[in-house]
Amino acid sequence: QVHLVESGGGLVQPGGSLRLSCTASDLTLDFYAISWFRQAPGKEREFVAGMGRSENFVEYSDSVKGRFTMSRDNAKRTMILQMNSLKPEDTAVYYCAVGRRDGSRKPDEYDYWGQGTQVTVSS
Fold first, then answer.
1. Residue 51: which of 68, 25, 72 has the closest Cα?
2. Spatial distance between the Cα atoms of 114 and 123, rounded to a whole number of angstroms
3. CB distance 58 to 43 below 8 Å
């Protein structure tokens, strides 16, 4: 059974940084597109960043472009989201997701999800 385990969330002041990681068990990441989504209270889950099966394909939402960086280490079955210059509006539960369609921003097109990790940006 596939599991995605996330870590790295927490409380940070505005302007600070956090590094989220997501490790997959029983899954070869090489064959999948990977993405990060987030969901704030009372809002729908939204796309944050996504990487295709080739690391040459990576996209970011306009709200995080230039501040967040996504990477993957297929050998370690791990994906990373480096978040810099955090803002209060980045506060949300962050989820990693794995799917088969490069570039998809639709949650229902992803096959596997992490349990979510809380990120709170506040002074």
1. 72
2. 28
3. no
SS3 120: strand
How far apart CA 94 and CA 83 sit, in angstroms, is 11
Low-confidence ranges of the chain (pLDDT < 50): none
CA distances from 16 to 70, 91, 117 (A): 17, 12, 17
Q: Quickly tell me which residue has 């070869």 as its tokens.
A: 28
Q: Are 8 and 16 in contact (CB under 8 A)?
A: no
pLDDT per position as a tens digit, 91-102:
999 999 999 888
Q: Which residues of 74-97 are buried (b: 16+ CB within 10 A; e: fewer)?
A: beebbbbbbbeebeeebbbbbbbb
SS3 of 114, please?
Answer: strand
Owner of token pair 């709200």: 63
SS (H, E, C) 64-77: CCCCEEEEEEHHHC
